[in-house]
């Protein structure tokens, strides 16, 4: 019943009103009807994997738990959704570690530019003991990280010119996700960073409120930013993992048997997402290029990396306890 009513509400109200309604928990779901948050549209690799998670859990628990993912951030923007999952107003979500930083300081390590040398290295780190350490830090903030999705490498794009060297960023107004480290990153390149929610970026690009942003190919494409920003420069400055996270209260309400079913489904969903990602990123790239986006390889990444050194120094000064974690990640082959 709550579920059907919710469908009606979410279909007929704008996202802001829906988020507001949720925040006062006016429509609590049945314990077994799990509501999940996702920023991406239907068909996006993450959305397909999350749908698989929904179906798998419902089937394997014989309907004791019925997760349902809500796409397109209709349940609110990412920082709000993280809070709502921590409080148990939402049951699960697919969260990027960027906006997680302000809540779980340890995860800020993952937002240090050029930390990982490849997506595969990131997977190896997150699938091993270091990933467990991040999961423990998240659990302390009431989020149970069950598996890790990839989100490729993020690069800059803008409406004006190709970025080939750091000084090409000078003066550009660039949208970043909600995390001060990204503001510092753009500052270090001489640009002006504007933290803004994902849903506002398209309109802001169109009206010239910002000149550009940064993201991976699938998001650049599915958000339609490519229709406005015609220069995509492969800086690949951030490789950020994303969690499939369950609210601690929803998790604790499960029997051991159901916990194991949910965990396995989350791990299988991550496998699927990572496979779909490869294919999806290639297709997105082809689509934006066919639409006239000029994609340029950035030859001298070291020049960008060098500009990030003060960010590392300041970070380590502020979090001396995290220096060895950075080293451990860098030493992971
Ligand atoms: C996408 C991430 C998503 C972020 C979005 C953004 O998958 O979690 O919300 O970027 O830039 O790549 O806000």
TrEMBL record:
This is C4-dicarboxylate ABC transporter. Gene3D superfamilies: Bacterial extracellular solute-binding protein, family 7. Keywords: Signal. CDD domains: PBP2_TRAP_SBP_like_3. The keyword Signal applies. GO terms for molecular function: carbohydrate binding. Residues 1-31 form the signal peptide. GO terms for cellular component: outer membrane-bounded periplasmic space. The lineage of its organism: Bacteria, Pseudomonadati, Pseudomonadota, Gammaproteobacteria, Oceanospirillales. NCBIfam families: dctP (TIGR00787), TRAP_S1 (NF037995). GO terms for biological process: transmembrane transport. It holds the Pfam family DctP. It comes from Salinicola socius. It comes from the Bacteria. The keyword Ion transport does not apply.
